[in-house]
């Protein structure tokens, strides 16, 4: 199993996208890229810890590649918004990639170049790290599959992301 760590706004919303993909074995919501040890949701949401809400994806590289995950990441959130996604504003909602080695860093740089062709504004996603991963509290895990489908915010944000995923990457979805 290989891992990838991406930040693209609210982790509830990004988790819902990547859980739909064939070859994705796990998706964990968490915090990364800040200066405070063992952050919690309240402190991260305050914007004072420097952490991003992010997801850690466990995947089978024989089924889905890191480059595919990067392309899906860029297609299902707006990487041109600095420190925000829609109404979620602050550095905790930044668009960022946290490569786990030099090969992932090189692939992330190439993915930004590929994605720029699809966006009319400059991509502001950052490539960060190395950084320590902190899992989010249990109630944030698998959020869309439970509470999220009753949450008005999630109902407004997640279905359009899933529609983009289905339209652009149908061959990558779990059948």
List the helices and strands and how they pair.
Layout: E1 2-8, H1 11-18, E2 24-32, H2 41-45, E3 52-59, H3 66-75, E4 84-85, E5 88-89, E6 95-97, H4 102-116, E7 126-127, E8 133-135, H5 152-169
Parallel strand pairs: 6-7
Antiparallel strand pairs: 1-3, 1-6, 2-3, 2-8, 4-5
Helix pairs in contact: 1-5, 3-4
How far from one another are the termini?
20 Å
Q: Identify low-pLDDT runs.
A: none
**The CATH C-level class name:** Alpha Beta
What is the overall silhouette?
Answer: globular
CATH superfamily: Peptide methionine sulphoxide reductase MsrA
Defining traits:
175 residues, 8 strands, Peptide Methionine Sulfoxide Reductase, Chain A, six-stranded mixed sheet
Characterize this entry briefly.
The chain has one domain (2-172): 2-Layer Sandwich (Peptide Methionine Sulfoxide Reductase, Chain A), CATH 3.30.1060.
Description:
This protein is α+β, with helices and mostly antiparallel strands. The protein has five helices and eight strands. The protein has helices at residues 11-18, 41-45, 66-75, 102-116, 152-169, and strands spanning 2-8, 24-32, 52-59, 84-85, 88-89, 95-97, 126-127, 133-135. The model has no long low-confidence stretch (mean pLDDT 96).
């Amino acid at each position: 199993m290989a891992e990838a760590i991406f930040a693209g706004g609210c982790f509830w919303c990004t988790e819902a996208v990547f859980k739909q993909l064939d070859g994705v074995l796990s998706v964990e919501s968490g915090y990364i890229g800040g200066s405070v040890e063992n952050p919690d949701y309240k402190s991260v949401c305050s914007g004072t810890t420097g952490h991003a809400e992010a997801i850690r994806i466990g995947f089978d590289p024989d089924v889905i590649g890191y480059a595919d995950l990067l392309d899906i990441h860029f297609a299902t959130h707006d990487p041109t918004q600095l420190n925000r996604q829609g109404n979620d504003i602050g550095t905790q909602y930044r668009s960022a990639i946290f490569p786990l080695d030099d090969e992932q860093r090189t692939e992330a740089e190439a993915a930004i170049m590929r994605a720029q062709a699809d966006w009319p504004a400059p991509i502001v996603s950052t490539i960060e790290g190395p950084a320590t991963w902190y899992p989010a509290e249990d109630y944030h895990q698998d959020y869309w599959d439970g509470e999220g489908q009753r949450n008005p915010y999630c109902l407004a944000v997640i279905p359009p992301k899933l529609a983009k995923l289905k339209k652009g990457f149908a061959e990558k979805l779990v059948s």
